[in-house]
Every structure is written in C-alpha cells, then in structure tokens.
Design goal:
The chain contains eleven helices and no strands. It has 278 residues and is mostly helical.
Length: 278
C-alpha cells in the first residue's frame, strides 16, 4: 500500500510558508501605514515602531496571551514556579558569561555559584535555593555587554514578535539567539524534534505568563501603551547600564589597588563612602 505521508507533508509545509510570508507582509504593511509627524528624539523610527507594535499586539492577543492565560489557570503555581526557575537557571549561565565579558569578576563568580547551588540543591533549578539564602539574581545580557564596551544604544526599535529593543539590544538579541553557549542553544541542541519544540514552546508560554500581571497593570494605568512601554524599557535599560558600568569601574579600581598596595594588601577607595567602614 502506497504511503501518502510525504505528499500530505509537502502541502502543509507550503501552507505554513505561505502563512508566514503573509504574516510578515502584513507586518511590513502595518508598519508603513501610519506616519508620525513629530517622533520622539529617542524614537526617530516611531512610524515603523508603532506599526510593528500593533502587529505584535495583534499576534499576542490572538495567540500568546490566551495560551498564557490558560496555562496560568490550569497549571498549579508550584509547577509554574518550578518550570520558570529551571529556565531562569539556564539564563543565569548566559548572564554570568556576560558579567565576565564586562570585567565584573565578582558578579561572574556569584552568578555561577547560584547556578551550581540551584542545579544541585535546587533539583536542577526547580527550587531557587540560592535566592532563599540571599544570593541575589544578577540579570545580564549581551546588549548590556555592548553598552559597557562603549557602543551607543541607537534608536528605539520594536522587533517582530520579540517587542521592545534598541539597535544595540537588537544586535545583542541576535548574538543571544545564535551563540553556542546560550539557553536557546541548549534547547536547539536537542536532537529529538518533538521534545525540542515542546521545550521551546513551554519557554515562550512561561515567559509570556510571567508578564501577565505587568500587562494588566499597563492596561489600567497607561493612556498610550506604546509610549508607556517604550519609556519604561529605555529607562530600565539605562539604569541597568549605569549600574553595570559603575560595577565594572569599581572592579578595575579594586584590582589596581591590590596591584599597587605593598605586600598585596588592598588600599581603601576614598571615593566610596562605605570603604573602610568595617
């Protein structure tokens, strides 16, 4: 008996390709429809960005938000917490690598201590025992690394499906998606396609589910959701970069102190009000 699987798979593949093409075409069309006469200085591409925001929002309302809401409804909180912690533990590996690239050795050691502690005592990351014992999470990414290295952020830029970004952060996202030591690389390294796709889907749903509360808050207080999200994103990234740069400078000053001190003793840093307080 002749198998019809190959012939049925080909039309499905063509239909999927056609739908993807139509979605991208719609995104391009929506992005170019409305022109903003006086865009914000931080957002010179506001016409495109608002169009892409509307496209992302439509996809979110049609697919991601309903799935995430259903996931939150039917999945017990302890299970959701365990799943989120496992993914967060993988993300910590990439955060630690970026701390090292930024010259923040202490944050690198602390982050990998978290990963080791959570991966063992925390049952593969299911339980965040590190946070329970006071080891705070240090979020980091390659966009921050580029900022510490001196690259400007560039204009605000809404990525298809992924949302708020800047030119610098967009490059960082591309590196994160393709580098061989990132959480996405660990998922894509799985040979079993159904398992790999299931884990990737669960990661997307978990990420969206953890934004539901923030989404409800924005709906309540924001008159213009696009401007609110843009300004909040840019302010948060600036605060993160300022913190990373300050930490990197402090690490460099501390290293120089140890090098110059007689007998390897650390000299006090007089511009730090807490130096020598103990």
């Amino acid at each position: 008996m002749k198998s019809t699987a190959p012939t049925s798979a080909a039309p499905r593949s063509r239909r999927l390709t056609a739908r993807t093409g139509l979605a991208l075409a719609a995104a391009a069309l929506m992005a170019g429809c409305a022109q903003v006469p006086n865009p914000s200085p931080n957002d010179p591409w506001e016409s495109y960005n608002r169009g892409m925001y509307r496209f992302n929002d439509a996809v979110d309302r049609a697919v991601l938000k309903p799935v995430a809401t259903g996931y939150e409804t039917v999945t017990p909180r302890p299970v959701r917490t365990c799943i989120h912690n496992v993914f967060s533990n993988l993300v910590d590996v990439w955060s630690g690598i970026n701390s090292l690239l930024q010259g923040r050795g202490r944050d690198f050691v602390d982050t990998f201590g978290r990963v080791l502690f959570n991966s063992t005592a925390g049952l593969g990351g299911c339980i965040d025992v590190a946070s329970m014992h006071g080891a705070r999470k240090i979020p980091n990414d390659f966009g921050m690394t580029l900022g510490v290295w001196g690259f400007g952020q560039g204009p605000y830029f809404v990525l298809p499906f992924l949302g708020p970004s800047t030119v610098r952060d967009g490059v960082g996202t591309a590196v994160t998606l393709t580098a061989p030591v990132t959480p996405t690389a660990a998922v894509f390294a799985i040979d079993n396609v159904p398992v790999r796709n299931s884990i990737l889907g669960l990661y997307i749903v978990d990420t969206r589910a953890n934004l539901l509360e923030a989404d409800r808050l924005v709906d309540q207080i924001a008159l213009d959701k696009y401007s609110f999200i843009r300004d909040a994103y840019l302010q948060r990234r600036k605060a993160m970069l300022d913190s990373r740069q300050k930490s990197a400078r402090a690490s460099t000053a501390d290293d120089l102190n140890r090098k110059d001190a007689p007998g390897g003793q650390s000299l006090p840093v007089y511009d730090d009000p807490e130096a020598g307080a103990n």
